[in-house]
Amino acid sequence: MVLLQLFTNESFAMSNIENTTTINSQSNIVDGEITVKQAVRIGVMKAKEWDDKASLALVTSVDENLGGSRGFTGRRYNWNLIFINHDYTESLILSISKGHITNFVPIKGRNDYDFINTEDVKVDSPTLVEIAKTKYKLKPGTEWATGYHFTLSNIDHLPCLRVVGLDRQGRFTKLYFNVRDGQELFN
User: Fold this and answer.
1) What pLDDT does residue 30 have?
2) Total structural domains in the chain?
3) What is this structure's pTM?
């Protein structure tokens, strides 16, 4: 079962109070901020309640005014995730804030998402933002997308994490990484 393989070597706890799912304190939540892999783990647990064969399609960090590292450490407070069913007729949108599910919105209707095999997500956002900052001198966003942002999706059936910030000239920039091995793509 994918769910069991995904959670080996880590402890997780479920809370069904007001549709929240939380990972426990041993999972390295830093002052409420979580990594993309932690967001995936939380989302998968909740999505399996919706459809036991649900597949991840997209994860993206969300701007907020809570302070924190704003992505400097590869962690953000808020994330949105999209899951799909296997006949592509329904989607589930989840929002996570400070490690808790805050929105759970099932949607009926055909979708064109490509699903992400969560077992392929081996390299996490803290590692990839460090590469973006050191090798490419990526700077944090300062206006509407503050700090560093992250989007996990498939591009041509390859699971990729986009690290978003500003280049040396202050232009909006996306750097792409293969999350299976951390290799840079299209950069």
Assistant:
1) 58
2) 1
3) 0.82
